Amino acid sequence: KYLLQKPTETFVIEIDAESVLYLQNNYPSLSQNIISKDFLKYNLNDVFNGASFAIIGNFPYNISSQILFKAIEMRNQVPEFAGMFQKEVALRICEKKGSKVYGILSVLTQAFYDADYLFTVPPTVFNPPPKVDSGVIKLTRKKNYTLPCNEKLFFSVVKTAFQQRRKTLRNSLKTFSFSNSLKEDSIFDLRPEQLSVEQFIEITQKIAANGV
Questions:
Q1: pTM over 0.85
Q2: Segment-wise mean pLDDT, segments of 10 residues, the chain, 212 residues
Q3: What are the structural domains of the chain?
């Protein structure tokens, strides 16, 4: 109801028929903008046609990471993103290097967005209450969100490194073909959680430039 008070147009994507009926009955002004589809499968450009839009939601926890990845894929059109996740996922998204929870979500999100953990939501405010705390985050796209490296390779390097997070990068990234001299670079002595986003970009650049 608060979004409807804003001057911008609001669209709702909701797959649950009971929830759609509730929205239609309680927010009749929204009825023409309710899309009863699966968010992950729906082509958002059927509505936005290349224009920019923000994503705001209380996301189903079982697909919340997939929703975030879809937003990252559409980063050219999504300057802002705000939502509620399971608390541990929300913290992971916003975490910095050096933490055990710092991982793929952290790096891939923060490569393109400034991530802020806003507040925790206790189970008691829900009916029925979930068994976990929730966390609300806000993502603001960086002014320069084009990476100075091959972005497809960057995604692959990050995901591969964290799949074996206890190993040094020299071991976890050995599936990539790069020269013996590059293997001796001291950055490969580190484990993935020790690297900042900028260092992952640096590694991607080195692999692209020195690969064999």
A1: yes
A2: 91 96 94 96 96 96 96 98 97 96 97 98 93 97 96 96 94 87 89 97 92 56
A3: 38-141 (3.40.50.150), 151-210 (1.10.8.100)
